[in-house]
Amino acid sequence: MKRTLALLLCAAGAAPAQEAAPPPWDAELTDPAGGADLMLPMPCGGAMAFQKVLVPVEAGDPLDDRAFRMGQSEPATGYSDYLRGAHLRGAFADPGSGGSAYYIARYEMNEAQYRALAGDCGAPFGRRDRLAHGGLSWFEAVDLSRRYSEWLNANARDQLPGGAERGAFLRLPTEEEWEYAVRGGARIDSAQFPARRFFAEGELGDYAHYQAAGQGRGNLRPVGLRAPNPLGLFDVYGNAEELVEDPFRLNAVGRPHGQAGGIVTRGGSIDAEADQIYSAQRREYPRFDPRSGQALAGQYFGLRLAISAPVITDAGFDAIRDGWIADAEGAAPETSDPLATLSSLMENEIDPRRRDALAGLQHEFRLAQDAAEQSLLQSAKSTMLSGAAFVAGLKEGEAEMQRLRGAINDLRDRFEITSNSDQRAVLLAGMRTNVERLTTLQEAQETSLLFYRRTLEALSENLAPEMRQAAYLDLGRELGTAELLELLSDVNSFWGDVNAYAARPDMDLAGLLAMALD
Question: pLDDT, tens digit, for every residue of 427-442?
Fold first, then answer.
């Protein structure tokens, strides 16, 4: 009817009336916590909040990406989420850091945002629209990202990161993008990044809606009610389980298995129990319901959009091509043992002079190889001595902290039963002194744990197991011969820590401390 009236007015020479812009939504529907890094408009007067995720790389090198470890070392779920290496780069340059960045939604898509993308702008938007939207299929989630990208390109293209010429678009996050952001990215301490959950203090209920008393009885909850992760992302644990871009693959002991399967959700849901919610958690579902044959739409399937952009652009093509060629030409070709190669050349060489020259080269190579191995061996032994010193220092520090805690409790007890004001003043001063000393030791312990992890990483990740074992045995013989028995005991204790860390390199700070003190 409105369209017919507008056409009649135009035919009569009158200008058509402009429809009023819809009123903007309340902040509780767009960014209830406030302070989002980026706000993008939506249909119906809405908006969606995004956080910037910095990925430290060399911005000038388009082929540079960041290596990180994702997954968890839990044997019971290793087939799905065991530790594996991953690489990541943001789609956008970040002038502030000189690196790269990508953007991911600060909250799970709520009912209001779903309604806006579905074109349901008629009824007023209220508090109930703050609920996380569930019941999506993977295909519908992808289509929602398409609709939103098309709307932004038509109505607010210049507000997308990178400007209108960058061609930014919205999609489901990859598993690498999702897990890197959930763990805290570059904003979290590197010692805490590999932990099972992103928080070191507090309870899961402080950060997540999940299957527990007072948690909503299996119904999706409003977004943004719990505390955020270190990047300012809300509800990454629990509430809706979040669909991602990639198909499911098993973990083939440290690498993705070759068979691609169904869809993947991350983060657990309001229906998940506490032990099922952690940063590496991932679950496979079939794309299609086996009973109906239709696209599977899980009750708690929700989404958190990411902003990306094409990799190869006209402006960046030359840099990518030239960088790739330079890397390819500079890469050492894969080959077998060079000594074996030299032996083969010597056997097939009929010229005695050339054979003698190859023999001399083989000798020089062996000498250089032995020297390199000895240098590596000495470095590994020095690292082990440093690790043993950290273990001894952590034990001494913990013993002193235990003594101070006992002294503080004793002074507090005496303070409470003493009425003499002079004695109370002395006792209070003593408590303050001991508390200050305890605080200093706790800070020193945190720093020592960081260096302790670095030492463990250097030995467990940068050395072959046989070299690590040789260094330990050689160091043990040296210390035993010198009768440095106390230091030998510390080295033996640290050696047990090295092996335990090699088996589980993602343990958190509490686990590291317990291991050092054991």
Answer: 999 999 999 999 999 9
Phi then psi for 140, rounded to 5 degrees? -65, -40
Alpha carbons 242 and 258: distance in angstroms, whole number = 23
Whether 109 has a pLDDT exceeding 90, the answer reads yes
CA distance 284 to 287: 9
Asked if 273 and 251 touch (Cβ cutoff 8 Å), the reply is no
Instruction: Output phi, psi for 49, to 5 deg.
Output: -95, 140
**H or E element at residue 285:** strand 282-285
Residue closest to 71 by CA, chosen among 63, 82, 60, 62:
82
DSSP state of 235: -
Torsion angle of C-alpha atoms 423, 429, 432, 436, degrees rounded to 10? -140
Torsion of CA 160, 165, 170, 173, to 10 degrees: -100
**Structure tokens belonging to residue 364:** 């020089």
Phi, psi dihedrals of residue 394, rounded to the nearest 5°: -65, -40
pLDDT tens digits, one per residue of 60-79: 899 999 999 999 988 899 99
Nearest to 234 by CA among 108, 49, 54, 109: 108
Picking from 80, 180, 140, 170, the residue whose alpha carbon sits closest to that of residue 302 is: 140
The pTM score is 0.77
Q: Hey, what are 291's tokens?
A: 């009973």
Give every CB contact of residue 380 below 8 A, 6+ residues apart in sequence. Answer: 459, 463, 467, 468, 471
Q: Is 228 helix (H, G, I), strand (E, B) or coil?
A: coil
Query: What beta strand segments (E) does 89-199 contain?
Result: 92-94, 99-105, 169-171
> What pLDDT, on a 0 to 100 scale, did the predictor assign at position 474?
85
Q: Do 97 and 264 contact (CB within 8 A), yes or no?
A: no
Q: How far apart are CA 111 and CA 124, in angstroms?
A: 12
Backbone angles phi, psi at 69, to 5 degrees: -105, 130
323 vs 251, higher pLDDT: 251
Residue whose structure tokens are 């402006």: 315
* CB 377, CB 474: distance < 8 Å: yes
Q: Which residue has the tokens 């990508």?
A: 102
- d(CA 90, CA 376) in angstroms, rounded, equals 36
